Amino acid sequence: MTRSVAAFTLLVPSYDAGLAFFRDAIGFAVVEDTPQAGDKRWVVVAPAGGAGAAIVLAIPGDDRQRARVGDQTGGRVGYFLHTRDFRRDFDAMTARGVVFLESPRREPYGTVAVFSDPWGGKWDLIQPNGAADAGG
Question: Which pTM does this prediction carry?
Fold first, then answer.
């Protein structure tokens, strides 16, 4: 049986803030945005094109969860966004206000740069070796 990670939850301060970053700045697609009881919504975003896991955007339900927004991995890079065209995505994300914490660098596994979400969560944008688009 083949398995894959289908989705994971990420705490964001509000649904609108989460969508502003993931949809508008990163360029993810909104897979679902369904109202639930009270002020809750089932909001799911994923890389356009359907490759990779989806992210369920969740708002904190209490002070303990609110304190974890932006620090869900203890300050480590916790999320890895693969691309087939690093320069295109790096330039587009930078133009839309994404903050990169370093310049792009080559590593044995590919080209990478760390960026931050608006709440301090750290992400790698990575073009793995051998993942270039034809002509890209």
Answer: 0.89
CA dist list (Å): 28 to 4, 76, 79, 103: 19, 22, 14, 23
Which DSSP letter does residue 101 get?
Answer: S
- Which string of DSSP letters, residue by residue, matches 1-65? ------EEEEE-S-HHHHHIIIIIIS--EEEEEEE-STT-EEEEEE-TTS-S-EEEEE--SSHHH
Across the chain, which has 136 residues, the per-10-residue mean pLDDT values are: 89 97 96 94 92 93 95 94 96 97 97 97 95 54
* Beta partners for residue 34, in sequence order: 42
Q: What is the pLDDT of residue 134?
A: 42
CATH T-level topology, domain 75-136: 2,3-Dihydroxybiphenyl 1,2-Dioxygenase; domain 1 (3.10.180)
CATH of 1-61, one of 3.10.180.10, 3.90.550.10, 1.25.40.10, 3.40.120.10: 3.10.180.10
